[in-house]
Write a structure and sequence with these properties.
This protein has 165 residues and is mainly β. The protein has one domain. 13% of the residues lie in helices and 42% in strands. It is built from three helices and nine strands, in the order H-E-H-H-E-E-E-E-E-E-E-E. Strands 1, 2, 3, 4, 5, 6, 7, 8 and 9 form a nine-stranded antiparallel β-sheet that branches. The longest helix is centred in the first third of the chain and has 8 residues.
Amino acid sequence: MAKQTKRAGFTTLTSKFPKATLPIELTPDTFREFEKKNKPLSQDSILQFLLEEGEAMDEFTEFIPCFRLPDAKEFHGLVYWQAGLMEYHYWLVIFDKKGNFVEKKRIAGTISGESSFKVTVAVITSSWQIEVKEGESAQNTKNLTPTSFSQHHIINISPEGAMSE
């Protein structure tokens, strides 16, 4: 299900995402470093490139560009942080070299529950492997990273940009 995107503005979009130095860890607090360096994305860029058909956003949702995967010859891999009401997520979106949408996957984030937070952290390795761990954290907003994780899985990114678990 490839979504066709307009090429106009795609180069501007990718320029908002600095190349990452891998490995990189995405935790509940990592976004603060990106927020200091990168300006929020414009609504036009979000609507044109980041939201899939049927997805919506409200006026309170914020999108912060984090980084792009380095050394990708066949695709553009962009990671952004999306802050909504009581949910915060890191997304990896893959575009082909022409700027056409290929795939998008949530790779880390935090969801607030009644008595705890569901926290997902991710490490993207230098070989483009994403190690994802999920756990629960008490309602302590000072340190949301869980002390133990109940689920663990690996997402592999092929040289062409396909993601598989």
